[in-house]
User: Fold these one by one.
Assistant:
Number 1:
Amino acid sequence: MGQATPSVPLDDFYEEPTWRSRLKYIGRLLRRDKSGMLGMTLFILIVLAAVFAPVVAPHDPLDQNLRAAKQAPAWNEGGSWEYPLGTDNLGRDMFSRIIYGTRVSLTVGFFGVLIAASLGILGGLLAGYKGGRIDSTIMGGVNLILAIPYLVLVVVLAAILGRSLIIVILIFGVTDSPIFARVTRGEVLRIRESGYVESAVSIGARTSRIIFDHIAPNLVGPLVVLATFEMSAMIFYEAGLSFLGLSVPPSVPSWGNMLTQGRKFLNIYPWIAIYPGVAIAVTALAFNLLGDWLRDVLDPRLRRSRK
Amino acid sequence: MQRYLMTRIIQSILLMLGVIVLVFFMIRLTGDPARLMVPRDATPEQVEVFRETMGFNRPLAVQFLDYLTGIFQGDFGDSLNFRQPTLELIQERLPGTIELAVAAMLLAIVVAVPLGILGGTSPGSFVDSIGRSVGLFGQVIPNFWLALILILVFGVQLGWFPTFGRDSPTSIVLPAIALGLATMGQLLRLTRSAVLEIRNEDYIRTARSKGLSPRKIAVWHVSRNASLALISVIGVAFTYLLGGSVYIETIFAWPGLGNLLDQAIRARDFPLVQSIAIVIAGFAILMSLATDIMYGVIDPRIRYG
């Protein structure tokens, strides 16, 4: 409608995006979505808390000050700003323990998902692209693991293999990989049937080119979103395992271990159980808001329907 | 339909066999099941005696065949701790777990479905924002923590409900809420998005243009199609509730399978752990079979697909 045809080829206007322009673009997307902004802010704060735990935490998380044991949070009667969130039954600073607990949760979440995603994506790509017997073998294993309710599977494995951070991460990594395999396979099958792959094949593109140039970029979106949600799920399950006494040793300040401690004193010193739970919920909130936002941003079909 | 049924049943049987194999080998992951099950301070002689009585010194294939034939005859082995067939223990506890899971599921459906439909038909409204908050809460609040908070507020401070056991009719209230919240959130989000999606379908436009009242459209077209999406999720969610009750049953001392599993693990009673895992997985497989069959009955596209 009255639009002039550009006299210069459009390519002249196209600039390769720089990191700065990309960051600016992400910032613009975030400003448009308040809950995405909240999720991103919380996420950054949590990561910073984990990385700079020794700086942020006012006390050593293992330091026992029995004279100040079971002290209430600062805004309650008998509390002081020396221990903002109070102290536990051994006089350890709750706030510092929660800050250090971030490290355990994020480590499990990050490395658990890293292993699960690597195994799952590899399996899913093989199953989806090769098909046939490889597909049915891999998917048979996937369905088998998914047939056992996840919590039961993880609890039993942890009980057999013992308590340590590495074992917990490995258990989560292996047991969670079927979900990544299933999603990857589904996406590969969907993409393989799409028009652009068909046209790439018809003009004689090599298999490697099809996988890396056409299939892989389309996998990134759904898998990044899945990884965000799975990280949040793993943080939940780690805390749950700790709660049952099956995760990291009791001496390690993890949120689940703190909850277990707090449960014993629930009636008299409730804050020992309340704040670690708040930490878990806030972390889960951050990952979920971030995941929702990523899904909106990375899935162009959804983006169009939102406008 | 018959062919679809047969395939699904055979798949389920194979899956069940697979689970038995998996659980059998899981116990042997550390290499020495005898060491795993005896108390930590047992002498090497005691371990040897135990190995002998449990038959762990026989070839693996013999052990497995023995275990498998036992299961087919209804013999899942004896509990080390209770000195009683594990299946008897499980039969005692199963009703408790099912009761709790059903209560949690009913609670979730009763809250989630109406809120989801209302939210989906009028997105952005006040009801919708309540619904969305419930959905988010279900996603981010760990059920074991919620259980503690419920005990603190409604059990200790207000004294409205019992906080442990299964002795009075109101005992189930707090555990059911703690267990059901996550499923409630999940069903709510699903119902809402299903309704939102269906609103844009062609057949809704057709219904509207032929002059049907909004109420009739909501009941006849929207609800019916949204229920398809719900059925597929309710089966999976029920399985989650059966397995997810480990924390909740432990916290509320609810006499169910989850509580039994926790006890068994603490006592290193692995024959019992094995049996519980197999029974719960069996339930999950049956549930998913039932869901698929129901889905096939309701939606003809599935059974001919």
Number 2:
Amino acid sequence: MRNPQLNRHGELTHLITTEGIPRDILTHILDTAQTFVPLADRDVKKVPLLRGKSVFNLFFENSTRTRTTFEIAATRLSADVFNLNINASSASKGETLLDTIANLTAMQADIFVVRHEASGAPYLIARHVPPEVHVVNAGDGRHAHPTQALLDMYTIRHFKQDFTNLTVAIVGDVLHSRVARSNIHALTTLGVPEVRAIGPLTLLPGGLDQMGVQTYTDMKEGLRDVDVIIMLRLQNERMRGALLPSSQEYFKHYGLTADKLAYAKPDAIVMHPGPMNRGVEIDSAIADGPQSVILNQVTFGIAVRMAVMSIVAGAST
Amino acid sequence: MTASGLSLPQAEDLYETLRQGVASLIQDLPPEHVHLVGIHSGGAWLAERLHRDLGLPTSLGTLNISFYRDDFDRIGLHPQVEPSDIGFDVADRHLVVVDDVLYTGRTIRAAMNELFDYGRPASIKLVVLIDRGQRELPICADFAAWQFQAPLAENLVLQKSDAGEFTLHIETKEA
């Protein structure tokens, strides 16, 4: 079966997950993003690539930062952007997801940016839109958050150049993290030889070893000699039952502090997808410290989302 | 030799004509306000060499017009070459846009649109190695080293060797 994100010419027409996207397409996205980065220094920070196109931001789950970066990215491509506050509208009146999409498609949408608490919602939408309409997943349930993974890949490439000699550790609540899953697929495809997941057993999902990931419950051991540390947010809102004793206890074992960071390589970079829980998964001194590239991630996120939208919008129909 | 029997001049000879043409085009302008801007890829190679040979005191700019093309809906976004690099303030500067082959004029339209997104230049001039005719927009070069009507079925391609020497080739367009 063809990857549903690719059209019959093998071009990226939707971005639902990093899983199964060939390396050359991932690299094409990163290279394109790189050409968008210098735009920020110009008088006019826009290019006319998506002039006349309509981008609909459909956020069925709250998010300020991701929605805003998508909005900035679409605006810098000269698209018209429409933000729909779904919780307050038709969904609460009982309209089904596909009816909502059919109505918006009838309003000549070109790209849907979708965030949904249910895993698979963007895929369902992608299957039902006409071929000239494109879907970009902005995070679905525990499944995937591909643009976050791509901006993480961009950040890693920016600071480390080559993927093929790196050891990358993903730390914390891997179980609930769509970011972790998307990162693992992207890192593996781009040729990172060693990916580690570090966290308490209750927050490490099964099947990580089948994905080629080594698991550690001892953070110091897991961080030894790594080049890149991706911290994850503790997702209290997705937790059911007692997975953790307390956030203080969690910080003691899995919070990134100077003494734990010392086990990584001296030039290791520290990443976090945000929003951060300071004092829970990361110490403030590290979040604001010299090895932190957390704000670089945010900046690169705009260029990466511009690249994704322009590439899918340019796919032939 | 083109399919129509025309023999191509040597690219290096054309380059020399271009260098002289650009030198006389900018001689009355204040050198500290003149910038060469090459269009990727061929125009950027030419601009780089002109910049060196003319000993210009100002920095060189390059443009990748992919994001300004008018055929995005038809061909999408192709793998990028180098990004645009305009490392100077274009406001009130005299810009000399350099390209290898002037054909429909659409590339130059895109280049001018992009340049105006960096600011408002004092003037823009266009210099090209070859003007092959068949314009689709009201655009003409201030200087062309060689003008002729190329057959529609043929593309003229500038190449640069590792040693930096220019050569011209003809490629037959795919039907």
